[in-house]
Specification:
alpha+beta; 6 strands; 4 helices; 4-stranded antiparallel β-sheet
C-alpha cells in the first residue's frame, strides 16, 4: 500500500447508526463485519471521546459513554441531547439522523 492511504469510515463499517437512548440521550453504533477492520479502526485513534466531541461541537462532558465492544466488533458512544426528544426546536425526535458526520471520518489504512 502507498503511504497516506485513507478510507472513509462509512466505507469500512457495516453499520453506522444513531437512535434515541431515552428522552435525553442519543446513542451511536459503529459496527464492523470483520475483526481486522474493527481492530484497524480502533487502533487508528480516529474515534475517541475527544474526536467525537470535536466532530459534534460538544464538550466531552456531553458524552455519557464511549466503549469499544470487542465481542460485537463495535464502537459505541452516547451523548446527552441539548433538550429532551420532542421538545420545541428538536429537529430529530428519534435521533436517527445524527450519525451522518461519522461517515466521512478518514481512517488511515496503511
Amino acid at each position: 500500500m502507498s503511504v497516506g492511504v485513507r478510507r472513509r469510515l462509512g466505507e469500512l463499517a457495516k453499520t453506522v447508526r444513531s437512535k434515541n437512548a431515552g428522552v435525553d440521550k442519543i446513542t451511536f453504533d459503529i459496527i464492523f463485519s470483520d475483526r481486522d477492520t474493527y481492530e484497524l479502526v480502533k487502533r487508528s485513534g480516529v474515534l475517541t471521546m475527544a474526536s467525537v466531541a470535536a466532530l459534534y461541537g460538544i464538550g466531552e462532558d456531553r458524552i455519557s459513554d464511549f466503549v469499544t465492544f470487542d465481542p460485537a466488533l463495535a464502537i459505541k458512544f452516547t451523548i446527552y441531547r441539548p433538550a429532551p426528544s420532542g421538545s420545541p426546536g428538536d429537529a430529530d425526535i428519534f435521533g436517527a439522523q445524527q450519525y451522518a458526520p461519522l461517515l466521512d471520518i478518514e481512517v488511515p489504512i496503511d
